[in-house]
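Quick question, first post here. What does this chain look like in 3D?
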Amino acid sequence: MKALILAAGRGERLIPITDTLPKPMIPIAGKPLLHHLIDTLRENGITDIIIVIGYMADRIRDYFDDGSNFGVNIQYIPQLQPSGVGDAILLAKPYLSDPFLLCYSDVVLHPELIHRMLDIYSTQKVEAAVAVTLVEHPKFYGVAELDEEFHITKFIEKPAETATLSHYATAGCYIFTENFTKILEKEKKMELALQKLITQNPNIQGVLWEREWAEITWPWDLIVANRLLLDQMTERDRSITISVNANVSEHATIEGPVWISDNAVIRAGAQLTGPVFIGENSYIGNNSLIRDHATIDSNVKIGFGVEVKNSLIFSGSFIDRLSYIGDSLIGEKVHIGSGTQTWTLYPTGEPIIFNYNEREIKVPLEKFGAIVGPYCKIGINASIHPGKVIGTGSIINAGAIIDKNVERNTIVNVTQHLTFEKKK
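> Answer (accepted):
Ran it through. Tokens below.
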């Protein structure tokens, strides 16, 4: 069976992180999202892979090439215009197997879920298999209604709250035959074709994934995905893994599971409390604390006394001494000055609001910090309120309190008023 991976989209809602990276190539736990997915497919014996590419396609081609270095064979199909899921599948139609496995590249799929999909499809002789998972807010997803035998009876794309009682979201993984692609040729849209298939054939099997799951649409989804992928790595190995080429002080404290990559330097007094991933050539300074699902990508420098918790720090960034980075996304080649603090909640308990295209979206996490775009420079003693975005290439001068989003290539200055008087 061949796998078709849809990886053409930009990830508009993830800007500024996707200003310099296509969404499938966002690195988490040492690998791009797409690399994690390909590993999952290979573990389940699927090695013939078709990838539909679009935005920043060369970043994907250059990384994976023909797939031989990853134990798979990859064929690329360009989608020159962002014309949707249905169009992407139809572009790949001449090259698909019958049946074929369809995966979205922005969904974290556990290897066990792929195994269940393949097992149920082969043993129960169903027309199609669709992964489903329980979600709290079905209005954000494609939702499946199911009968007592877990056959899908209806599909609704992002339903209104009163449109369905179902909380089963489709989980970004499907097994289809050419019957589906024939319907898709007429209907054009994925959701219409899926509903038509369900109407014509009662034997569309829902495959339940009862554990946590992430579809990466919004910035906070990357925080969830990072946690899930580090936890998956922990399932395989709960030990401390240190490269023979790493330089780790005997006076550092490491509590697993922790992964330390080639040529990383961990200085005396540093504490790493896993799950934590430290990328190649990264430097963790004296008395720093890296903890609780932190991913430090390659060539990152963490200064003296810095705390990084449950965050993604992308390659080439530098966080200077005595800063706190919590529940945050720090893009490529960012420089954060000493004493900078990311807020992760409001002391008043008010909800964290994310502003996107004049919409106000309540962040569905208890804590969420900053989104700092690539190539930003942040001066000393700056503070960033929860859920605020600093656009690519911006400069935040010393002492600024960022309580609203900052557009790309913006300089934020601080004006102060000093008074002087003689002592009496």
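Residues 345 and 402 are 14 Å apart (CA to CA).
The longest helix spans residues 219-236.
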